[in-house]
């Protein structure tokens, strides 16, 4: 089992620190932030519990309910980066009931284990990267020395430079690290890993199978090499990867990856409302292989079962499941009762209005206004938004959401794109200029659109 003392730094964040980190990117939705922060902290708390009681503590799964564009998926994205734990996000609508064409829900766990093994492998590569890079440099230096008619003198290879002086390997290494050979091409052998990806029917359903896994040990496929001419920096990276593979114990990596998936894995199931029928009356309309059948298949996984993967059996008893859905045409009570019980924590996300839009445009680290300003700066154009201009954009976005389909903060993208369409088109010819966006400019640019009866022609 993963040693609690070796947990990533993010795993030891307090709930308050987790919420504070999410606040940098997501405006409002404090109830949802608090729920995921507590769930994440509980992973750490469970690791500190001694004895058999630790195995009895199961995660409290969360279902987030709210209209589209209010931050459900964004919370998942930021949580994945913050958690530093095996994380996979899936769309519920992509799955079908076992026995029908399509992906079955067991593939969620297989994807989680793949993500976990990749996470552990990256950590191991980072740990031994310095040693692997030194070995890679040695291989590159050998090729350079061989191509330059080496004159061997002493235990290490040496080569004459243009002036006829003998250059030792350490001097050559210094020149390599100084970038003198960066534009030089060398020929090297690399593993031929090009194998087609195909979809096949397996006992677990329709899955992507990499033929490399099937044929890599067969005669004619094993250790296949091909020659490539690459620049020295690229050669160092390729050789570093090859040397890292030799230094990493993949059996230990896979074992640790499987353990982490079981103990700290997080699965985010988006669009879960798409597998919920519209009321109980929907049951009388025949089976729907992408709805209630999928819910029934999810039951044992969310409750805790053992799933076979290529790395061995994986238990889902301690995997945290977070589901999210808008529930426009259905409601959470339309879910299969057993599945409702598997998500004891329900969080309702609030709709967003003009005040929230103003904050979304300006406060987050990746705020939309900051993105557009940075984009225009690449053309030498200075874009400045006044407070009244930002308020007007927010008011227009909120008004369009009220009169049309409410798509939340995503409306800001369409409004800003329409507002800045002319500026973006002419930006290459406007280098060195400063454009100020105030309320008058916003109204002038969008007045025709807002007065049009057919808004859908302009704003999605």
% residues in beta strands = 15-25%
Q: What is the average of the pLDDT values?
A: 80
Q: Which structural class do the helices and strands define?
A: alpha/beta
Low-confidence stretches: 150-156, 160-164, 201-206, 280-284
For the report, how would you describe the main beta sheet? 5 strands, parallel
| Discrete helix count | 18
Helix content: 40-55%
Short description:
The chain contains 18 helices and 15 strands. By secondary structure, the chain is α/β, with parallel strands linked by helices. Strand 10 (306-309) and strand 11 (312-315) form a beta hairpin.
Provide structural commentary.
The protein has 460 residues and is α/β, with parallel strands linked by helices. It contains 18 helices and 15 strands. A hairpin with a 2-residue loop joins β10 and β11.
Layout: helices, strands, pairs:
Layout: H1 15-23, H2 30-48, H3 53-56, E1 62-65, H4 72-83, E2 87-91, H5 106-127, H6 129-147, E3 159-160, E4 166-167, H7 169-177, E5 185-191, E6 197-202, E7 205-210, H8 211-215, E8 225-231, H9 232-247, H10 250-264, E9 266-270, H11 292-303, E10 306-309, E11 312-315, E12 320-325, H12 337-341, E13 345-348, H13 354-362, H14 368-377, E14 382-385, H15 387-403, H16 410-419, H17 421-426, E15 434-437, H18 439-451
Parallel strand pairs: 1-12, 1-13, 2-9, 9-12, 14-15
Antiparallel strand pairs: 3-4, 5-8, 6-7, 10-11
Helix pairs in contact: 1-2, 2-4, 5-10, 6-9, 13-15, 15-16, 15-18
């Amino acid at each position: 089992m993963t040693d609690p003392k070796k947990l990533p730094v993010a795993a030891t964040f307090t709930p308050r620190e987790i919420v504070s980190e999410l606040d940098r990117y997501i405006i409002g939705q404090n109830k949802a932030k608090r729920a995921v922060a507590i769930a994440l902290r509980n992973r750490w708390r469970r690791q500190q519990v001694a004895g058999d009681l630790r195995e009895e503590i199961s995660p409290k799964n969360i279902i987030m309910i709210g209209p589209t564009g209010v931050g459900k998926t964004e919370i998942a994205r930021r949580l994945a980066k913050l958690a530093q734990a095996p994380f996979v996000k899936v769309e519920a609508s992509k799955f079908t009931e076992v026995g029908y064409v399509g992906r079955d829900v067991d593939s969620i766990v297989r994807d989680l284990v793949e993500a976990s093994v990749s996470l552990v492998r990256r950590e191991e590569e980072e740990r031994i990267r310095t040693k692997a890079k030194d070995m890679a440099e040695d291989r590159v230096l050998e090729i350079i020395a061989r191509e330059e008619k080496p004159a061997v003198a002493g235990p290490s290879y040496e080569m004459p430079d243009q002036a006829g002086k003998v250059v030792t390997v350490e001097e050559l290494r210094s020149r390599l690290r100084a970038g003198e050979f960066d534009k030089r091409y060398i020929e090297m052998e690399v593993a031929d890993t090009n194998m087609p990806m195909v979809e096949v029917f397996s006992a677990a359903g329709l899955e992507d199978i990499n033929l490399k896994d099937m044929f890599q040990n067969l005669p004619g496929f094993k250790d296949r090499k091909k020659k490539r001419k690459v620049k020295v920096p690229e050669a160092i990276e390729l050789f570093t990867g090859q040397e890292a593979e030799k230094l990493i114990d993949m059996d230990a990596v896979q074992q640790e990856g499987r353990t982490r998936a079981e103990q700290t894995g997080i699965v985010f199931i988006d669009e879960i409302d798409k597998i919920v029928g519209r009321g109980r009356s929907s049951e009388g309309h025949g089976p729907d292989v992408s709805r209630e059948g999928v819910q029934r298949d999810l039951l044992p996984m969310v409750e805790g079962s053992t799933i076979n993967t290529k790395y061995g059996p994986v238990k889902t008893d301690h995997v945290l499941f977070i589901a999210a859905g808008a529930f426009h045409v259905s409601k959470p009570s339309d879910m299969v009762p057993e599945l409702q019980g598997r998500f004891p924590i329900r969080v309702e996300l609030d709709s967003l209005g003009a005040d929230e839009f103003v904050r979304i445009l300006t406060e987050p680290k990746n705020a939309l206004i900051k993105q557009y300003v940075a984009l225009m700066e690449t053309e030498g154009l200075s874009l400045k938004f006044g407070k009244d201009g930002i308020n007007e954009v927010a008011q227009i976005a909120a008004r369009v959401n009220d009169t049309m389909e409410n798509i939340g903060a995503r409306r800001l993208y369409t409004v800003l794109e329409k507002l800045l369409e002319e500026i973006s088109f002419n930006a290459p010819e406007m280098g060195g200029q400063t454009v100020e966006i105030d309320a008058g400019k916003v109204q002038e640019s969008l007045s025709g659109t807002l007065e049009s009866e057919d808004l859908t022609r302009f704003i999605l």
